[in-house]
Write a structure and sequence with these properties.
The complex is a heterodimer of chains A (121) and B (121). Chain A is α+β, with helices and mostly antiparallel strands and 121 residues long. Helices cover 35% and strands 31% of the residues of chain A. By secondary structure, chain B is α+β, with helices and mostly antiparallel strands. Chain B has a single domain, classed as 2-Layer Sandwich (Alpha-Beta Plaits), CATH 3.30.70. In chain B, the strands form two sheets. Chain B has a four-stranded antiparallel β-sheet, with helices on one face. A two-stranded antiparallel sheet of chain B has the order 3-4. Classes of the chains: A alpha+beta (121), B alpha+beta (121).
Chain lengths: 121, 121
């Protein structure tokens, strides 16, 4: 079955200024959404990322690897976390994304994985 | 143990340039090295998930916060470079994750952003 990445974007500012009651509601709604994904057999992976300030960029293509603190993309908003789901088709994935978006109180980006990722070679 | 995202970052690639590898031989060599890297992750018990993503123009953004979901074609962030694929690994510390990212970067001929998860759902 095809796999889809459902990613949630936000800024550190967004996460720092969210109302605690609203955050609690979000946690509960996301937890219920996660349970639904498990119950439907759609769950593959899900997790929330640490602040983007914890990111390191690694370029190992030359003789010695080059490490650079900070994210690769210098955007205000970054991926804050994501799900990987299995769904029969894009329409089904978009429906999950709508429910995930409501639960996490933000837009969700949906992107299919390659049918046969080299990672599974 | 902590989970880390290793995201491969770069500009969109097409079949015209052998997906950025320049030649068929170089592409096959990279796939072989990435496959060997994946096998090693699995043998070491560090593998959680990995996959290559479909081209960025296959992306959809879903905002399910209103009464009916708003679906928009295209990515959330309007950047020239994007995540092309990623690994999720489970390792003792950031140093281990960065060392693996250097090997992965060499294998897949790309720059990798490493970021810790703050928890898994």
């Amino acid at each position: 079955m095809p796999q889809y990445l459902m990613s949630v974007h936000g800024s550190d500012e967004d996460y720092a200024t969210i109302d605690p009651a609203q955050m609690q509601q979000m946690f509960e709604d996301v937890d219920a959404f996660n349970q639904q994904l498990h119950a439907d057999g759609a769950w593959v992976f899900g997790g929330g990322l640490e602040s983007v300030s914890t990111a390191t960029v690694v370029d190992g293509q030359s003789e010695q690897p080059v490490f650079t603190d900070g994210p690769y993309l210098e955007t205000k908003e970054h991926i804050g976390g994501f799900w990987v789901i299995e769904a029969p088709d894009l329409d089904a994935a978009l429906k999950y994304a709508a429910a995930g978006s409501k639960a996490c109180q933000g837009p969700v980006e949906v992107r299919p994985f390659q049918p046969e990722p080299p990672a599974e070679a | 143990m902590t989970h880390y995202l290793m995201a491969v970052m770069g500009a969109p690639v097409t079949a015209d340039d052998f997906y950025g590898y320049g030649s068929k031989e170089e592409m096959e060599q990279s796939f072989a090295e990435t496959g060997a890297f994946n096998d090693q992750l699995k043998a070491d018990g560090q593998w959680v998930f990995a996959g290559g993503l479909a081209p960025i123009d296959k992306t959809t953004v879903v905002d399910g916060q209103g009464a009916s979901p708003v679906v928009t074609d295209g990515p959330f962030l309007e950047t020239k470079e994007h995540i092309g694929g990623f690994w999720v690994i489970d390792v003792p510390d950031l140093e281990t994750a960065q060392a693996l990212a250097a090997t992965a970067s060499k294998a897949c001929r790309g720059v990798i952003e490493v970021r810790p998860f703050d928890g898994l759902a």
